[in-house]
Amino acid sequence: WPRHLIYFIAAAQLLLSPQTPSSTPQSSQEMPPARSTALSLLVSVSVLAAAGLANATDHIVGANRGWNPNINYSDWANNQTFYVNDLISFRYQKNTYNVFEVNATGYANCTTEGAAGNWSSGKDFITLDRPQRYYFICGNGFCFSGMKVSVLVHPLPSPPSPPTPIADHAKAAGSSGGGAPLLLQGGLAGAVAAAIAVSAAWIGI
């Protein structure tokens, strides 16, 4: 799963788990304001996460030509823009071709030693979950026939600034000495991490 969704699920489980009862009884119909605000923040972050997934692009290697020998995949890759959580898909004849994720050396020399992953279903979907350069080749000697592609994955654009009231609450929590500032920069994973920190400060965990 994309890392930002894993962080979100973990935070939600933490916030929804039973808390130690307070010395001051509260109505069973009423949720503490801090807890309610924290949950609202996590809902907002989940919307950002869902938006990130909805905007993810599936890049089919070679387009309608698929994953086959004697195709210039560098030209194909140079006409694509890849972002974190996009998919790269390989379509090919099963039992004839395959896909290996290798490092720069393996890519240059067409070797699969120490490969980070390999696929052979004939229709492979691979999530590009980190901002870095990826290298993919075909084994069985087909890499030497041009079955290799390298793609550069860019970080997600920064999400929109949060509403002013949320920013004010976060600032207040930070000034009280137990909070963490809300910095929704660096993509969805950063937004979720910030939400977890601020929510923990408000709830006192």
Automatic annotation (TrEMBL):
Alphabetical UniProt keywords: Disulfide bond, Glycoprotein, Membrane, Signal, Transmembrane, Transmembrane helix
PROSITE patterns with a match to the protein in the record: PHYTOCYANIN
Pfam families named in the record: Cu_bind_like
GO molecular function: electron transfer activity
Claim: Transmembrane helix is one of the keywords in the record: yes
InterPro entries in the cross-refs: Cupredoxin, Phytocyanin-like, Phytocyanin_dom
A GO cellular-component term linked to this record: plasma membrane
UniProt superkingdom: Eukaryota
Residue ranges crossing the lipid bilayer per the database entry: 134-153, 182-203
Purpose: May act as a carbohydrate transporter.
Similarity comment: family membership: Belongs to the early nodulin-like (ENODL) family.
Protein name per UniProt: Lamin-like protein
Organism: Anthurium amnicola
